[in-house]
């Protein structure tokens, strides 16, 4: 009897990505209000990976809110804790990890992300950021006389560094799943080789 071989079911783009990632994580970077947690949570569901939020993990490790850490111990203390927490989370991959806006500015953190993850910069412009950060008053860096000027300054200081991320996705006011689709498409090109190998219409939420 000839052996019958059933045709292989094509793997989904998401499954191909997680297979190619191995133990590497996907790290979302970018300014506050860029949508790192919102998009990260949805991306983790699509990739069937755990979602980790560095800010929440820092708060849990310190048993304190971020505004309280800033107020009681100051920003340098927060930044050291942030770098330690992100190092630990990267060692527990694979996961989708949303980082705070300042995390990627540290060289040691950037090097760790480069070694243990694929980074996605969610790039948002000033107007979008201001619209979104107005909804919450828990960002210590924005407790200034002119928050828009502060965000503008942070954007110009940080964007030259953010742009060294592996992938850049424009964060804008479109349905979240559209941004997630774009992340999946770009990740597939990055980790599975050959940008454009995956037709965008093969994505389940296009
Ligand atoms: C910060 C961003 C915040 C938080 C802290 C400092 C920053 O996180 O880590 O308030 O330096 O931009 P989000 O980017 O998640 O708001």
Please provide a brief summary of the model.
With 206 residues, the protein is an alpha/beta fold.
Number of helices: 9
Strand elements, count? 5
**CATH class category:** Alpha Beta
Q: What's the N-to-C terminus distance?
A: 44 Å
Strand-residue fraction? 5-15%
The run of helices and strands is HEHEHHHEHEHHEH
- What is the approximate shape? globular
Q: Can you put this structure into words, describing what you see?
A:
The chain has 206 residues and is an alpha/beta fold. The chain has one domain (21-204): 3-Layer(aba) Sandwich (Rossmann fold), CATH 3.40.50.300. It is 51% helix and 11% strand. The protein has nine helices and five strands. A five-stranded parallel sheet has the order 2-3-1-4-5. Helix 2 (36-47) crosses helix 9 (176-192) and helix 5 (75-91) runs parallel beside helix 6 (107-116). It is globular. Bound molecules: shikimate-3-phosphate. Shikimate-3-phosphate binds next to loops.
């Amino acid at each position: 009897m000839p052996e019958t071989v059933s045709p292989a079911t094509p793997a989904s783009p998401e499954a191909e990505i997680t297979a190619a990632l191995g133990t590497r994580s996907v790290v979302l970077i970018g300014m506050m209000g860029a949508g790192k947690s919102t998009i990260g949570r949805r991306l983790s569901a699509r990739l069937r990976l755990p979602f980790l939020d560095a800010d929440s993990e820092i708060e849990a490790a310190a048993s304190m809110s971020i505004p309280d850490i800033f107020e009681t111990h100051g920003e340098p203390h927060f930044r050291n804790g942030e770098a330690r927490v992100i190092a630990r989370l990267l060692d527990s991959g694979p996961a989708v990890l949303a980082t705070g806006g300042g995390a990627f500015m540290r060289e040691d953190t950037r090097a760790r992300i480069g070694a243990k993850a694929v980074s996605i910069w969610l790039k948002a412009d000033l107007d979008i950021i201001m619209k979104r950060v107005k909804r919450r008053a828990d960002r210590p860096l924005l407790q200034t006389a002119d928050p828009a000027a502060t965000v503008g300054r942070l954007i110009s200081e940080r964007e030259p560094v953010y742009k060294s991320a592996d992938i850049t996705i424009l964060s804008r006011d479109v349905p979240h799943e559209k941004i997630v689709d774009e992340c999946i498409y770009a990740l597939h090109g990055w980790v599975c080789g050959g940008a454009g190998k995956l037709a965008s219409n093969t994505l389940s939420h296009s």
